[in-house]
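hey can u run this one w/ (2S)-2-hydroxybutanedioic acid bound, need the structure tokens asap thx
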Amino acid sequence: MTSPVKVAVTGAAGQICYSLLFRIAAGDLLGKDVPVEIHLVDLPVALDACRGVVMELEDGAFPLLKGTVVTSDYDEGFGDIDVALLVGAKPRGPGMERADLLKDNGRIFVGQGAAIDRSAKKDVKVLVVGNPCNTNALIAASGATRTDRKNYTAMTRLDQNRAMAQLAARSGASVGDVRNLAVWGNHSPTMFPDWFGATINGRPAADVIGDDAWLQGDFLTTVQKRGGAIIKARGKSSAASAGNAALDHIYSWATGHMTGDFVSMAVPSDGSYGVPEGLVCSFPCRITGPWQYEIVQGIELNDYAKAAVKRTADELAAEREAVSEMLS
Ligand code: NAD
Ligand code: LMR
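ok here u go:
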């Protein structure tokens, strides 16, 4: 039997993980034929709750689930792991922006980044979900000396999914008919869901929609502010859709599913499109093989798109400045 892939999930007692963990066990992260061992990592105060989640995982009788570890010790939790899903962090409440979480949550990623670099497999793949996820990923990656910084990523797939759903609903197409919709920048209200390169049933999305005012107005702000709208409606931030997007991010990366399409991944910039090197910025990415991605090159940005990318990259640069004392 193939040995299980070891997946660490932080914030395991929290609301996102309450849907995410069960779907990992069901094979939605890496494939329906890939056995997994899940490391549930949370604060000491939350370990009893994690043990309860493990009982429920056992009661799910998932054939692919070969073992669990419950711990608040980072080196144990990240020990020999292949994949880290860094979800554990404070969510924002009503009236807050995600950047307001930076000082509190950023520190979590100093310790976790160091422990991953010490204890995980050398080619570990990391996805940061905890907000503000881009800059938290930057903090975690900054300490990497043994592991590869290129493998420290943050989640903007939820924003891509939201944008695709909006375009599909407006045009009457199905979500599966929308392709190459990619999100640029920060997971914040400055993000740019780029409809210029997107197609619906093979035709430019802008032509199919036929309403530039809507694209530059309601479409843009709905996607940019969707997280806040959910908090206002639910009293809590998005959870199941966030877990779903984390699965999409890793499943695409690991398996090459959606090869040929763009996928939105926040990854360390190599300077492409004028985004300063090192910032963890969302780009249109292409999966070129199992666990291989590249930033799509050669996209001709018009003046509107150039300005939008610059605005969100400038915000990431300001966040980097604000956490400079947390960077190694
Ligand atoms: P939650 O409050 O329900 O759960 C957070 C969990 O993290 C808790 O169990 C808490 O004990 C744990 N935790 C806190 N500090 C920790 C640490 N140092 N190590 C390990 N665990 C720790 O929150 P949630 O709704 O599950 O959201 C988690 C994070 O994900 C928040 O920051 C939220 O804003 C973010 N989020 C991001 C996206 C995205 O698209 N990137 C989407 C939704 C939510
Ligand atoms: C989201 O986009 O739903 C999350 O980042 C939660 C939030 O604070 O908006």
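The radius of gyration is 19 Å. anyway lmk if its weird
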